[in-house]
Amino acid sequence: MKQKISWLMVGLLVLLQLVAGPSRASAATAMIFCNGNMGSASGLTSSQISGFQASGFTTMVLFAMSVSTNGSFIYGGQTICSNGVYVGPSNWGSLLSQCLKAPSSVTRIEMCLGGAGDTSWANIKNLIAANGTNSSTVLYQNLGALKNALGINAIDSDDESTYDSGSAINFGLMCSALGLKMTLCPYTDSSYWAAVKSDLGSEVDYIYLQCYSGGVGNDPASWASSMGVPVSQIVPGYWDYERNATFLTNMMTWAGEGCTSGFLWPSCTGCSPPAGPSEMLQYAGWIMTAFYPETTNAYDLAANSAYTGDGPPNKLSPGGQNGGFGFGAWTFTVQNTGGAFIQTNGPSGDSFDLWNTSANSSTVAVRPFSSPLVPGQSFSVQLRLNSLDNSGTTNALIFQDASGNTLFSYWHYGFEANANNGWYRDATTNDGVAVNFQYAYQQFESFTFTLNSPKNYTFTDNSTGASFTGTISNSQIARVAFFRGNGSSGTTSGGDDFQFDVLQILSASPPTFSVTPPQGALSVPVANSIVAQVAASRVGLNTSVASITVDGSPVTPIIGGSSSLLTVSYTPSPVLSAGSVHTAQVVVQDDNEVSYTNTWSFTTGFSSLPAVLAGPFTVSNSVDLTIFTAAGDPWLGSNYLSTSSQTLYARFSMGFDTTNDTSSIYTWGGMDFFQGSDEKLLFGKNGGSPNWSTAIDGANGPDLSPAVTVVPHDWHTIVVQVNFEDGSPANESVWLDPDFAQPLANQPQAPVTLSDDNTFDNIRLRCGFNDASTTFSNIVMAATPAQVGLQPASPPRIMNINLSGTSLSISATNGAAGGSWTLLQSTNLALTLGQWQTNCAGNFDSSGNLSTSITNTATNRQEFYILKVH
To answer: For 788, phi and psi rounded to 5 degrees?
Structure first.
């Protein structure tokens, strides 16, 4: 008979302690390599399967399968597929399917292929070369047999020796033809993995980056850049070798780079198993904590000092205590014989304890929230049911509105016909069966109540993984109550107390936005698509509700992806204006109808010179900031390659914020010209001099003139003139702190001159050596000296002509120091310049002056002269 609880005095929402388990659904991939015997048929014991189901890991990767020279598949030393037939353990597929069976956090199973010292990928290369990839080949047929027998979702490539992209791509295409995804597990040789990913495209949906052992030091952001994928597609992994929170620290660091998922490599291969249920729970929890941290809105423990001295039999009553935060004060109400006190056992060391012995007695504990529960929040608690002596005894958890009306209740009563199930009531269900919400005698179990929308909820028994959804009336949950009561038959034996501890309210973290172009990006092509990839946290995203505005104007987006990873994109039409800052805003909505907004800005490339970036821009830690590119800046394009004959000017100001070494020798930074990834010329400071200096092709170049030591926070301005000549090295002149009131020819300090193959297609701002940092401002790329702020040069001119007998003296000024000149002469001004005769030639002196004498014969009654400057 179902125990009726309509007579309960109060009802409140219960807070359940959230643990990393199946109840914590999220968009994150928490992957575990099933090392050793973890994923084998012999290792998948009932307790290990239950451990996987409750672990919080979403993906199991079985480690590891090999391919022999004849194409047979081998796992754990046993052939499992041969000649297109599965010959492995007959119960393996069934055991794996149990790992996926609800309620389970596991939603995907992969088979890893390869590993250190394994020759599988060399064998695959040879087999494909010999037999091809059609459906009649042994590789194809064995893949099909494996998929059908085990129900796997993907093949994980752990190639650590062969690195042949052609055969790997062909193997991936075979997987795709059979409905299998391919994942990659690199630790080195990013170019190989980038080629595989590029050709297979979306058939590769995860990249598991090894950041331990041989892959220690791998950086997800750098690998994402090398492979041409968003950093959110890189799933970094670490091992459990240290057996401490190093794992969590690393995951949080990678979350800061934009990763949204992680994996565990259980390092103890010889352990049985390498990772058991408790370790899996801990490490999956750390992954979720790192990538989807939640906000704690309320928290309290029975061990809190606010309850010191409130021992048996009834020192908590009548209430008024208010330990922790986020809650109001307790109220304890006792009817007939009973009480409320702090028990000296529980998850926190203590627990709240309600008891009754006489008939028709009850004890009720009520706790208001500081603010009502809102969609996306969850309430957690740990409960312990002791003896329920007869069918009239009940322990219940209740949620109420601010007026005390019951919105939801969950309970167990004595002598239940099936103690494996509990009971619940909400707005639409009376005496509903809470399947697999077990009566766990004298054990603390964790429960979670999550409000999904204003009226819909999910209630979960975290200890068993069971859950159900339902509806509450249109009122806000504002209180929680705990009820212990006896019916017409009292209890006399004792030990029938209702205990609870660890009350907590959590808010789901917001979704994570990954945007293109990135925030603050420079040199963005004017036709570049604007894209936001939005990764859900614990709450899924609405795939039909999203919007984009560009520069304040709404546009029509394309919405794709899934509720866990939504893509919102827009291709500008007409194209964006060049050389301008643009602002994009994307708004999405989750399944709880909560909206999230991300706003960011970027700068499009310049179509023509001058190109001006005001800054300031700060760079550090050897992370470059690319400011101009051939793809984004049409002025650059292919204009400065080996066939160029143009002149380019650059101006920028910079100062080192920190230099990290006493003599400042090793710190480097400045404006750097690149051809692809090859460094050409750096102007600022090289890593071998304490002074402002240059670097050529990555090697230290000369100091700038005058020699000035780099001092932190001491700003300087550099001007560069680059003269390109078709088929010849470029000539560079570099001035440190030039006099902007003078033209280049009249600068008081001579420039440093260089000659180098300075063909380039991108310009970067750089700084390196530990955590040294540099700030740049007032960056100008120009076609003339005047565009970088220098005074226009006065044109060369003849200053004096003097005739003495037959000797004619000519002097001129405003030439380029050392520049060449030619004196032309003619008796007829009407002739074209090409018809004038050369009289003599020479070079201006270091001050830009010339003085020369020529012979003027008596027969020349009239002569005209032109000074031609080269």
So the answer is: -100, 10
The greatest distance separating any two alpha carbons of the chain, rounded to the nearest whole angstrom, comes to 146
Q: How many CA atoms lie within 13 A of 298 on its CB side?
A: 27
**Amino acid residing at 557:** P
Which residues on adjacent β-strands are paired with residue 354?
A: 340, 498
**Sequence letter at residue 753:** T
The tokens for 531 are 């894209």
* 3-class secondary-structure state, position 763: strand
Collapsing DSSP to helix, strand or coil, 597 comes out as strand
831: which residues sit within 8 A by CB, 6+ positions away?
none
SS (H, E, C) 489-531: CCCCCCCCCEEEEEEEEEECCCCEEEEECCCCCCCECCCCCEE
What span, in angstroms and rounded, lies between the C-alpha atoms of 723 and 725?
Answer: 7
At residue 1, the pLDDT reads: 29
pLDDT at 176: 92
Contacts of 520 (CB under 8 A, 6+ apart): 600, 601, 602
Query: What tokens does 731 get?
Result: 């000539």
Q: Quote the pLDDT of residue 296.
A: 82
pLDDT score at 860:
54
Could you identify the residue written with the tokens 């007579």? 7
pLDDT, position 3: 35
Q: What is the pLDDT of residue 25?
A: 33
How many other CB atoms sit within 10 Å of the CB of residue 43? 17
DSSP labels, 653-720: EEEEEE--STT--S-EEEEEEEETTEEEEEEEE-TT-SBSEEEETTEEEEEPSS--B--TT--EEEEE
pLDDT computed for residue 399 by the predictor:
98
Q: For residues 688 and 466, give the distance between their C-alpha atoms in angstroms, rounded to a whole number.
A: 65
Output the CA angle 353-358-363, nearest 5 degrees: 35
Q: Identify whether the C-beta of residue 850 lies closer than 8 Å to the C-beta of residue 842.
A: yes
pLDDT confidence of residue 17: 27
Q: Which pLDDT does position 859 carry in this prediction?
A: 55
Spacing of C-alpha 316 from chain mean position: 48
E strands in 35-135: 59-67, 73-75, 78-82, 85-86, 108-114
Distance CA 137, CA 124 (A): 12
Separation of alpha carbons 508 and 199, rounded Å: 37
Q: What is the DSSP string of 120-137?
A: HHHHHHHHHHHH-SSTTS
- Per the CB < 8 A criterion, the answer to whether 339 and 312 are in contact is yes
Helix %, strand %, coil % for the chain, to 5?
A: 15, 40, 45
* Residue segments in the chain with a per-residue pLDDT below the cut of 70: 1-28, 417, 490-495, 538, 659-664, 856-861
Q: Which residues contact 528 (CB under 8 A, 6 or more apart)?
A: 516, 517, 572, 576, 604, 632
Q: Which of 509, 597, 591 is nearest to 544 (CA)?
A: 591
What token pair was written down for 577? Answer: 């204006």
Q: Please give, one letter per residue, the 3-state secondary structure of 208-275.
A: EEECCHHHCCCCHHHHHHHHCCCHHHEEEEEECCCCCCHHHHHHHHHHHCCCCCEEEECCCCCCCCCC
- Exposed / middle / buried, residue 645 (Cβ in 10 Å: 0-12, 13-18, 19+): exposed
Determine the Cα–Cα distance for residues 237 and 233; give it in Å rounded to an integer: 13
